[in-house]
Amino acid sequence: MLRTSASRLMGVATGATRVATRGFVAAKLPDLAYDYGALEPVISGEIMALHHAKHHNTYVTNFNVAMEKYHEAELKGDIGTMISLQGAIKFNGGGHVNHSMFWRNLAPPKECAPPEGELLSMINRDFGSLDALKTKFAAQTVAVQGSGWGWLGLDKATGKLAVATTANQDPCITTGLTPLLGVDVWEHAYYLQYKNVRPDYVSAIWEIVNWKDVAGNLKDAK
Is-cis flag, bond preceding 41, omega within 30? Predict the structure, then answer.
């Protein structure tokens, strides 16, 4: 059976151990709360294994490398190098943060239930209904050019929920929203199963959204 631990798939993951490295704490590749095959038929075990143990792990590894270089440059007062590393830190750090939320936002189909309580009330207030939210989310997320993410977030300034998208691995926070739910629309997240039909992937993923986790994120954001 495909398992959640990347170490079972490829040995000890580079950069996946939480250790202090020359003054900074390295990022860690998180294990999942479910087996790689647990999200089928929506997302295949093959995709999950590659996505988590390979793609996410690469972001973790490269983020740690960039942060180590940044720390060394900071000690030397090398501002030019510090500036030059910002792109790698944002891209790989964003990839790590985004994927870490993505895994928690998902759950096996049998464990998923519709939103309720305050979260459902806010969805109805701000979008009209859950179906209306799904329609708006799909329209914006499917339209992302190239690679990126679709987000449901909280606008703390207004207290309302909103849908947003980001390019590449830019985190949701760059839109001004606090992330509650993120959907990866990089092709590596779905191509082996859905080919180039992104709308089918975005439509199907609602079957495995962990609304309890989204509600928890809302509570933490307030």
Answer: yes
Question: In angstroms, rounded to a whole number, what is the distance separating the alpha carbons of residues 164 and 177?
Answer: 8
User: 25: helix, coil or strand?
Assistant: strand
Q: Examine the pLDDT at 5 and tell me if it is beyond 60.
A: no
Per the CB < 8 A criterion, the answer to whether 80 and 32 are in contact is: no
Classified as helix, coil or strand, 44 is coil
pLDDT tens digits, one per residue of 91-108 = 999 999 999 999 999 999
DSSP 175-220: GTPEEEEEEE-SGGGTHHHHTT-HHHHHHHGGGGB-HHHHHHHHHH
Cite the DSSP H helix spans in 33-128.
Answer: 45-49, 57-76, 79-84, 86-105, 117-127
